[in-house]
Amino acid sequence: MRLNFEKIAILFAFIIAGTMALRWAMTAHWKEFISKEGAFSVLMPAKPTEETHSFAIGAVKVEGHSFSAESQSNAEFIVTYADAPTAPSPELTEKVLDVQSQALTEGDANRLLSSEKSTVNGYPVRQYKATTEAGSEADEKLLLVKRRLYVLVVVHAKNESENEVKTFFDSFRFKPID
Predict the structure, then answer these.
(1) 134-163, pLDDT tens digit by residue?
(2) How many other CB atoms sit within 10 Å of the CB of residue 163?
(3) Do residues 150 and 40 lie in contact, with contact meaning Cβ atoms separated by under 8 Å?
(4) pTM for this entry
(5) Is 21 left (phi over 0), alpha (psi -120 to 50) or beta?
(6) Distances (CA, A) of 41 to 145, 159, 170
(7) Which of 171, 148, 168, 166 is nearest to 96 (CA)?
(8) Are 40 and 175 in contact (CB under 8 A)?
(9) What residue ranges define each of the domains in the chain, with the CATH number in brackets?
């Protein structure tokens, strides 16, 4: 009986060590990306590609900046930020963050897998997980910091890349702007 317990303990130790080594190998090549203009830093799986998008909300022109990179597991990691002319009211802040789940699921509430409300350094945060129309999964984290909205998105194969999503989201740091 003692021999079986020792074998199980050794097997369990190998499984834990293997899992830790795999997690380290998948994120070891990740590098910190810093955006001075965006006032944030985040770990990315590769050097990100930058894009700028202009759009209008009513009569107000808004410019968004996106940074995206693909991981070895073919997951896509995106950070976007955009500034409003002024900080929204607390009521409007809640609406902006809550309505994003509808945008993520393209209005199909059945595709929303999870929704979490929290704060980081006193700023409101929403985290959503949904299935995409193509059957992949999308994890999204939104932070509204004064008048700047940060959107972090990871699109990945179903039930994969969870460790990479956690690494990406947990590594995000920002500096509040005025």
Answers:
(1) 889 999 999 999 999 999 999 999 888 889
(2) 15
(3) yes
(4) 0.80
(5) alpha
(6) 14, 26, 11
(7) 148
(8) yes
(9) 31-174 (3.40.1000.10)
